[in-house]
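Before relying on records like the one below, remember that each one covers exactly one chain. Contacts with other chains, cofactors or solvent are not represented anywhere in the record.
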Amino acid sequence: MKILLTVHQFFPEYSSGTEVLTLETAKSLQEKGHDVLVVTGGYAPQPMQDADRFDNYIHDNIPVERMMFSPGFIGDSADMTRLEFDNNLFKARFDQIVQDFQPDIVHFFHLMRLSVTFVDVCKQRGIPTVFTPTDFWFLCPYAQLMLPDHSPCLGPDARAINCIRHFMHSNRLSPTINAVADALPDVAFRAGLAVVRRNLHFRLPIKLATLGENARSVAARLPFTLQRLKDIDRLMVPNAMMKETLQRYGVSTAKMVDQPYGINLAYQHNAPRQPAKTFRIGFMGTLSKHKGAHVLINAIRQFPSDAAIEVKLYGRLTDNPAYVEELRQLIGEDARITLMGGFPNSEIGEVFAHLDVLVVPSIWHENTPLVVYSAQASGCPVIGSDFGGINCVVTHGENGFLFPSGDDQTLGQLLKQLDQDRALLQKLSDNAKPPLSIAGYTDALQTHYVEMVQEKPL
């Protein structure tokens, strides 16, 4: 078959979980004899000419078509809020790619900064579609169901008032405006927005946009994206938490398939775990606030200063410099904690070979990060935040521990317990749950692809 995969960003510039899953899926499908094309996005901080937005390249033998998102006009619009999910220029480009490639199946892994109207293109051309959610972007403009103060969010309300408040904070209109907006009841807030949309023009840090225009785009987002989500033929849902969230917004469970992610097990099996006297604690992930590396650093303060521990934080240091600097300030002179930078995914087994426990201290509703599967494949116990995307893999006291999100005190106690009880640490390691291989994952995908192509009307 000809299979087209989409993802919001891709290698070599980006290498987080969704990108890894997309790449490994593409490679595995290619090994099974399929013709695979990846369509992705990218981001440029400076305005671009439309003619310069599109390019293509080969990564790891996978052909890639790329569309570059940037501030300013894209096509005939400069509404960045709307363009992030509804982009006519990118839709037209995708339609041309589909005409040229003639895919049998289109599998969406992400559409942020591309356009959910890619779903319309497939529907109009009668191409079966699949979606694998790796976060909540279809429902949440910020993808993580997390409020500006980093507390959990239940999702957009009926008029997206909570999303508009979030937007105002994220764009730092002014402390006074945000304070007044926060104090207003929803009824008064909606009335104020109506006035702004009709009469007043508060300039935002986004060129050529106004508060009213962006509020309108934020409010229009959920109905627009949700309709496209419902138009997708089959959803590969990785855990019960994601299924429940989609169901709450009216997505039919008849379209959902329970399908955990797969990983490349060869990366783990090539490096057996190495024992050591020092208690070795690891963190792997994007160094952004929502991943919670600061929670781990704060937890380490419970250990005596002479404790034989070492903490290694793996993640690219250039993606979020302000947060990395915050981590450096937290670490201070503590030589036991090291910012290691990133590493190629192919080396993950070697990294796990020198860890005793992986900490996943996320403060957002994690959607089963691949690193949890990789840890289990390596026999490395996980201590993770008690969210549905983590506790579907980690069973407290069996193959790891769970703790309330953001609770560095409980995390520190659990780490000290494992440091002092190596027999318990070994028990958790022995009880690791073998994850699905990437080959097994694409076997399952392939079965659905074949069914959908066969069911396609002539």
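The chain has a mean pLDDT of 90.
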